[in-house]
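Example 3.2
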Amino acid sequence: MACLGPNSDLARAGQAVAFVNHGKRLQRPRLVSDAKMFYQRLHGSLAKTIENPGSGNIKDAKMMAVLLGLFESTCVFSIRALGDSGESLDDLQSSLDMLWKRSEAPLESTKVGPLRGEAIVLEQRFAKWENSRATEFKPTAIAHVSQI
């Protein structure tokens, strides 16, 4: 990417993915806004390359399409469930992370029950989130791990 320069479409696509990820995680709306601006501009550039393949580097265009797909995935899975005031996947993953950290600390036997209850509630929240997704965005199981 260095040979293309920091203002190339491919560099901007990488920036868009980085900005949207960091902006959401760090709650920096300016980064997210910049990422969306890059994304909109890049869509036009990609459309021109697809319309006239001789006008640009196809290899770079394919990489840019992959990066724009990552951008879209980041946005799709962090937005609230379609139209309701439900939770985003980011919210659920944050709750899982907090619960996981608490489960790793040494616990007295009396503290295991409430922790288990929170895990069950979190599992139900994940199920509600999954059921609220449009069909094309529902997670798909590709394998199962059997219990030992």
